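Hey,
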Amino acid sequence: MRVTYWNTACLEPEIEAVSKEIATLAAHFSGRVFGVSRHYLLRVAPAARTVGVNAGFDPLLRLVIPLLELGCDISHVYGEPSPWIFHKTLRRRPIVLTVASEKGGLVNGFLARCRRIVTQTESFRARLIAAGVKPDRVEVIFPGVDLERFAPAARPPDADTPRLLFATAPRSAQELAGRGVPLLLDAARHMPRARVHMLFRHWASGYTSLEPTRAMIVGRGLDNVELTDGVEPDMAAVYGGYHFTVIPYTTPDGGKECPNSVVEGMACGVPVLISRAAPFAEFVVRHGCGEVFDPEPDALARAVERGMSRWPELAARARNTARMLFSEQRMLARYRELYEACLDEAR
C-alpha cells in the first residue's frame, strides 16, 4: 500500500501540529509527503521522503501533481477542507481527506470524490453531513499521542501557584487577537498569584508575532508572564510543570481546532482551560477534562479558580480521556482500516 500525503502545511514537524501529524502517519505507513505552501521556496527531506514546493509554482504543479499521483495507491489530503490546488488536480486514486484545519470553504465536487473524510471535531462532522456528505463516509479521528512518552509527572506542581502553559503561539502579528494573546495577558493582571508561560516557536520561514507580544507584556507591567522563543526538544517533560494548558481563542478560527498542546497535555494529566469560542470547547464540556470560559479576561481568571479547586479530578479525567481517544496506536490502526476500505472499494 503506497500512500502519498498531500498538504499545505509548513513541513516543520518539530514545532507545528499539522506537520507533526502528517510526519507520524508517513513514517508509520512508509508514505511520501508532498507539500505546497507559501512558507518555503523548496523544502526537501530525503530521509522522511518529503518534498515541499512554493505555491508560486502553481501552473507547473497543476501538470506535475497528476503525474505524481500515479505513483501511489492512496491519496491522503491533509489540512483544509478543500486545499486550493489538490481539489483541482487529484482525480486518479482513492482520496482520504483529513480536515485538520477547518478554515476555508467547501468544494462539493471535491468532497464527493473523497471516499473517506476525517474530522477532528464533532461540529465539523455535522457541518459536512449538513452539506450533503453521507454520514458513513465521514468520522472523527483525533490526533494520536504516544501515551508511554506523554504521561503524568510523578509529582504535580505546587497547588499554591496556578501555572498555565500557552503553547499554541501564532506565526503572525495579525493572528494575535484571534489566538487570544491580548486576552490571556489581560487575564494575567487579574490573577497575580498565577504564573503564565508563553512558549513561542522559532519558525524557520520567519514570524512576526514575538516582538508585539513582548511589547504587550512590558506595556502591561506583567511580572508573572514568561515568554520564551525556541524549539523545545522534549515537550513531554514540559507539561508536567503546569496545572493547565490554555486555549484563549476569541474567534472560532483563532487557531487549530484540535490543538496539539491540548492533546499532549491531557495525555500528561494536564487539563485544559479553553475559550467557549474555540470549536474544541464542546469536547471539553462533554468529557469534563477542563474548564470552559467566555472569551473575556475576568472569565478566564474565574476558570483558573474553579479549575484549581478541583484539579485532581480534572487531571484524572484528562488522562483517562486521552487514553480512550488520543492513543497513537488507535489512530494508526483506524487509518489503516480506512486505507484498506478505500482500496477494496476501488477494486
